[in-house]
Design brief:
Blueprint (H helix, E strand, L loop, with lengths): L4 E2 L5 H11 L27 E2 L8 H18 L3 H9 L5 H13 L21 H12 L4 H4 L6 H11 L2 H12 L4 E5 L16 E5 L2 E12 L6 E11 L13 E7 L5 E6 L11 E12 L3 E2 L5 H37 L1 E2 L2 E2 L4 H31 L5 H26 L10 H11 L6 H18 L17
This protein binds flavin-adenine dinucleotide (FAD).
Length: 476
């Protein structure tokens, strides 16, 4: 069925395709809905924003998995929370608790829920991004839950990347054990000495020397590098050694390389505390001192680093955004409970108008954000990563801003207790604040959205001229 829906963000190619379907129908009854002569942008796309129906319904399979996941969280994860805190407060990564939970999740089919492109011989559910999104929301409420279902960052991103770019030998050695949840990985891009929001500046050198690649540089905030099972880093660095690198386009000068964590010359210098909290899996500073890896550790072609980074990012942002929305739902529920039971100045906090406004605004903003994320997931599934680029930037921005806003309101309602470890609010807020940098700061995503809008406006220049008024003498 073809439906007419105003498209929030136009994508020329899909609009063109749909227009081709719609235009012949114009003479058969749709003429009133379509302009007589559609305005066209430079690429020939219609100015009228039209697209096929956005269908956000989850498949029966996704609904069944959501029910199982909720049950698993209630029966096994939530009752383990106290134990998890006991171990992690003692500075021990609670593998003894997590590994049995992983085994149970896998036995129930709650495993690798995020990767639509899995082959038949790879373990997992092959859900679309849209079908996976609500599962990420459920996991998001407990920061360490995603690992139990083998859906945690940064490994989910590494698996996406290896699924796209690994050679059969690389897939066998690195992807297969990741998919089985036997090892972990990290993604090493950001550097202390370069503005990492602009990765064209990355200076870590990847130089070919005989049949090896040699890596030299310093990376930091590398999530997961201190995990006891982390076995390799995917390192993004600048190609050197061939002599003609500076003549290449800016986005063709970097490559990605698999570097085993036990390589000679690679050291984890420190686990950097984030807002005074040291996570056990780590956001680490790594130093590569002439680290040598064989030539077959390169991912894709030399110079393909940016293309690979783009391919890796889309689904990962849907995951982060939905987990953030899960955290907002938790904060809202806690805020409501607290407001209903706490009394001040003769009233329950819930009776104060400002608290009611915070609750209502949180509900509205969460629901708006969720729809935006589902739209991005739907577009990734139906039109691919390139078409979803702006949507993916938008949800990264909207969800991380929303997370700190809703968490902040909940904290205000809880008073001083919110700053203690007795609620999850302070820890979640700090994570939300970090989210506004990691995977690119807000401003970079705003720039992506603004560029898309200006591009569209340029292609339709003058289309709105009729809305502007010019002074004219009164008619006589
Ligand atoms: C908890 C955490 C985990 C992380 N995990 C990883 C990881 O696993 N792997 C990894 O490689 N990196 C990781 N990072 C690093 C993260 O990706 C970088 O912090 C991020 O890319 C920003 O780079 P930067 O910190 O160098 O900021 P900079 O690039 O120095 O930017 C600083 C500020 O400049 C401004 N700015 C930048 N560009 C623009 C623009 N175009 N327009 C307007 N203003 C602009 C923004 O206000 C921005 O916040 C992590 C960071 C954190 C906090």
């Amino acid at each position: 069925m073809v439906d007419l829906t105003i498209m929030p963000q136009p994508h020329a190619e899909s609009a063109r395709l749909i227009w081709r379907k719609l235009w012949p129908m114009a003479g058969r009854g749709l003429a009133g809905l379509l302009p007589a002569r559609p305005g066209r942008d430079k690429g020939g796309a219609p100015a009228l924003r039209i697209m096929a129906t956005m269908d956000f319904a989850n498949s029966p399979r996704s609904l069944a998995l959501q029910a199982s996941l909720r049950q698993f969280m209630a029966d096994l994860v939530l009752p383990s929370m106290a134990e998890w805190h006991r171990w992690s407060d003692a500075g021990v990564y609670p593998l003894d608790l997590i590994e049995p939970l992983k085994a149970q999740a896998r036995a129930l089919g709650l495993w690798n829920l995020f990767l639509p492109s899995l082959r038949d011989d790879q373990p997992g559910t092959r859900l679309s991004n849209l079908d996976y999104a609500p599962l990420a929301e459920i996991m998001g409420q407990v920061p360490w839950a995603a690992e139990i279902f083998n859906c945690n960052a940064p490994d989910s991103g590494t698996m996406e990347l290896l699924q796209i770019a690994a050679t059969p030998a690389q897939a066998e050695r690195w992807l297969a054990p990741l998919l089985r949840g036997e090892i972990r990985s990290c993604f090493a891009m950001s550097e202390p000495d370069t503005a990492s929001s602009d990765p064209t500046q990355l200076s870590t050198a990847i130089v070919q020397d005989g049949s090896d690649w040699v890596v030299s540089g310093r990376k930091w905030f590398i999530t997961g590098a201190a995990h006891p099972l982390c076995r390799f880093a995917v390192v993004m660095g600048r190609n050197g050694g061939a002599g003609d690198e500076e003549n290449l386009p800016e986005h063709a000068r970097h490559s990605m390389l698999i570097v085993p964590m036990d390589s000679a010359g690679l050291t984890v210098e420190r686990n950097i505390p984030v807002m005074d909290h040291q996570s056990l899996e780590g956001h680490c500073e790594l130093v590569f001192r002439d680290v040598r890896v064989p030539a077959d550790h390169l991912l894709g072609e030399p110079g393909a680093g940016f293309a690979l980074a783009q391919a890796r990012l889309g689904p990962g942002r849907v995951h982060h955004a939905m987990r953030s929305i899960g955290q907002c739902e938790l904060a809202l529920a806690l805020m409501c409970e607290r407001a209903l039971e706490r009394r001040a100045f003769g009233s329950r906090l819930a009776d104060f108008a400002n608290v009611g406004d915070w609750v209502a605004e949180s509900r509205l903003e969460i629901d708006q954000a969720r729809l935006l994320v589902l739209q991005a997931a739907w577009r990734l599934d139906t039109q691919g990563a390139a078409a979803a680029r702006t949507d993916v930037a938008a949800i990264k921005l909207v969800s991380s801003r929303l997370q700190t806003r809703v968490l902040d309101r909940a904290m205000q309602v809880f008073g001083a207790m919110s700053l203690s470890p007795d609620t999850p609010l302070a820890r979640l807020w700090a994570w939300g604040r970090a989210l506004r940098f990691l995977d690119g700061p807000d401003e970079v995503h705003l720039r992506t959205v603004a560029r898309a809008e200006f591009k569209r406006a340029r292609s339709q220049r003058g289309a709105n001229a009729a809305h502007l008024r010019r002074w004219m003498p009164a008619p006589v």
